[in-house]
Structures are given as C-alpha cells and as structure tokens.
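Notes continue from the previous slide.

Worked example: a multi-chain complex. Inputs as given:
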Amino acid sequence: MEASVTLKKVGKLAGDRTILAGMSFGVERGSLVAIIGDNDSGKSTLLRVLAGFEKPDYGNIYVHGLDMVKRRAETCRIIAYVPHESDFDPWLTIEQNIRFIGLLHKIPTHKLDHRISGYSERLGISEFLEENTGGMSLGIQKRALIVRALVQEPQVLVIDEPTAFMDADGSRMVWELLMEMHGERTIIYASQNLREVELANDRILVLHHGHMALDGTLEKLLATTNNYHQFHIEFEKLNDDLYQKLANVSTVVNPSRVGNTFHFYGRSRRAFFHVLKKATDAVQLDFTVDTLGLNDLMDSKYARKGME
Amino acid sequence: MISAFLKRRWWLTQNRILTTISSALIIPIILYTTIVSVLNNVIVHSIDEIPYEHWAFPGLIMIIATIGLFPLLYRDFFDLRIHRHILQPITLAPVTKIEIVFGIVITAIIESLSFVIIGMAVLIILMPNPLVWYQYLIILIYVVLYNGVIANVFVTIGLVTDRVTMYMFAVLTFLMFILFGSGILVEFEFYPSSLGSIFANLPTSVLMHGLRSLLFFQRIDWFSLIYPLLIAVAWFGVNGLLFKYKSKQ
C-alpha cells in the first residue's frame, strides 16, 4: 500500500512545553485512522499539524510524497480539515460560507453547486443552507463543516471529533457517508467517543502526553490489556466491611464501588469466583462480566501503566 | 482568487445593506456640522486664499473613506481572527498569505469606495459645490490610493495586537495622527515648522497635497501618486509576511 501521510520526527512546542514529541508514523492511502487520548494529550495539535494549520517546530510531514511546507499549495488541494468547533463567518449563510472556500479552491461553479447540494442532502442540512450560522445548533454547524471539507473532494480528510454536538441521526448520517468513502480516501480523525472509534477504524493511535503510546488495530490494542475482564456484582447491601474484604482479594485489580455495586478487574474469570467465595453471606442481586474495550484501556489504572 | 473575495464582500454587504447605507448618509452630515461648519469660522481661507469649505472638502472625503474602511478590516483581521478563527479555513486554501491580505483589503477598499460615493453626494448637497464633475472622479482615484495606505496600517495593527484594548488604543492614536498629521483638516503652515516639515513627508500628507494641487491649481504632482502607491505595495508584502508569521504556517 502507498503512503498517504508520513510524519518524520514531527515535534511541536509551546514555550518550554512539548505538545508533540518527535512523532513518526505513516498512514496508508484509503485507510481510516482514529486518534484517541486524554484531554491535552496532543490530539488536536496533531490534527492541526497534519492539516497544515500549524507548522511543526521540527520534523517533516509528507502528503502523497509532497513535503507539506515546501509544496504547500499542492498539499492544500489534497487535504481538507474539519475543526472541532465552527469557524463559519456569522454574517454569511451556511451556503455562502461553503461556497467561498470552494471558490478559493477554484472549483468550477457547476461542480460546486452539485457538490453542495449533494453532500448537504446526504448530511440532512439542505434546509439550513440559506440560514446564517448565528444561533444555529452546533450539530448542524458541524455537519456543514464536513460538507465544506467534502466539496473540495479531498484525498485526505482530517476531522477533529466527527460527530461532536450531533444527535443520533446526525451521527449516523456522518458515519454512513464516511464509511462509503473508506477505501477511496484517507480519513484521519480524533475522537473522545470511544464506542465510535471501536466501530470505525483500520488502525488506532493512542496519544499520551504528546507521545505515541500505542499504535495498532483494535485487537492489538486490547491485547495489551492482558486479557483482563471487567466485573460488576450488585449486592443487596454493600457495606464498608464487605467492600474492604472483597477489595483485598489478591486477584482483584483496581476495585471501586458505585452504590451497592462492586466493580473490579481481573486477569481471568477465576477472580470472579474468588470474590463470590468471600461474599457467600451477602445477598447478590445481579452480575455482569465484560471483556475490556477501549474505554477500559484509556480509563483503567493498569492499562495506563502499560502505556506509560 | 479575487473573484472569491469579491463575492464574499458582496454577500457581506448584502446582509447588512441598510446599516451601511444609513451610516453612509449620516456620517457626512455629522462630519460637516461638527467639524467643517465650525472650523470654517476660524480658518475662513487657506494660505492660498481658497475658501476653507472648498479646501477641506477632499479631507472630509478621506475621513469618510477611513470610517468606511475601518470596520471592514477590524472585523476581518482582528475580531474574526481572534474570536472566531474565521481566517483559518481561508489559510488552508491553495493561495498565498499575500493573496489573502490583498483579496480582503482590495474588496474592502471597493466597498469603502461605494461608501465614499454616497457620502460625497451628501456633502455636495450640504456644501457650496466647489468642484466640477471630473474633479470628483479625481478624488475617487486618490481615495483608492489613500485607502491603500490606510488599509495596510489597519491590517498591521489588527495582526500585531491580540487584545481589544490594545487594538483600540493603537487605532485611535493612529486616527488622531492621520486626522491632524496628514493635512486633512489643517494646513501644515499652522504647525511649528520642524513638525510641519516632518508631517508633510508622510505618504498620506504627500497624497493630500498632490490632490489639492490638482483640484485647485490644475498641477499634476506625479510623486504624490507614485510615493503612496509604492508604500502601499511594499506594505502589502510586509502584511503578507506578518500574516504568515501570526498564522504559524
């Protein structure tokens, strides 16, 4: 597979603080890459650097083999960027905002008309095209930002939180469209919605303090959790003594409680039976056993240790 | 490229056409009643024996041009840049930063020219008509040059300041300087000679002097056209680089 975007030791600083630390990776053409990480881990900065919004302080970025700094005009035609929040001009209508950027990209009027109406219809915003953005719902504006990027017919689409502020319908429409493009265009996106990421990815990059902590497929990432399971046992009454007794079981990892429900992780299902054995006197109402997902990977203490 | 910026300017003007027209009608009336009608009683004639009202007419037009231009550039290069990051998607288009600055400024000058034409019409009604028709066209040509210089100052201030208070302070200081340091309302002969000779060499002062020479003495001063033009062109380049630096690209 050919490389779509390649980063070579790309770094970004803010004063003395390192936002991105010598990042190197390549993205294959037509792939769908998700970037996840804590708040302030550098996701948005990475996207901004990838999209050409900000120049890296060191290192190089190549888009379809072209140096992003030296061949900026050409790479601007290849990449389109969807920011997290609206950057529309509030005195222009949605359509005027989109059309203006299309004209700057020298897209012929008939093509622009066709693309604006086509993508707006797909994302359910046709009826809002003639409205000014002031006071418009953020979800609609976000869909319009995606339309603005798509009218450029970019080969690489960089999206910061694809479904931020959107209702269920909006999210579905956006993902249906993006999944149709999957394979033809490279899509790189950052998201805090980990369920969304689990469903839509060829590869996941996990950022941690400006470093690439993990990089791989969902299966590969979850393998780093060492087959841990997550358990929930709901008791009729979970008092402090019982909680302490259960938390001290040697196979219980990272215990916590919410009301009368005891949560813990364990490397195997045996941990569950160890806990049950200690709680024979207590009345148990319900239990669940889950294999770990991305949310646990990002949230649990032991997985974080693995990253660090 | 410029057609995209022209369309944008047209859409923006359309969306606030009533405010623009009413301001263009009211501002000349305010300027005439608060400045010219008062100073007319103090100065009466220029050094060259031209009635003050006639002498001040081109200056009033330049003030109207400045007022017409200021909000457009404040909005694009300061307000929307700082508060809504609206310039950012424009910077991702395959155009250079100088082209972006040029596109925004030229279309703002065109809009301010329409503002000036309305203002000029109002002033012609208010004041004794001092000029013949082609002289009004000459004024419009000089307005374009004058705005070319002034616009670059507004762009520079808009790009180098990141706080509203600093921006307003810088702009107000500059406007005061332009008003009294460019021979717009008062001749340099009224100033101390050392100060007057410094002010007289500013591009806007040279331009005003050249315009009045042409209007009242039919003398063409090519330097008064070329000097501000060269300053404006060079400043466009500087602002392009400044914009590139500020956008961190």
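Summary box: Chain B touches chain A through 24 residues (CB under 8 Å). Residues 52-84 of chain B form the longest helix (33 residues).
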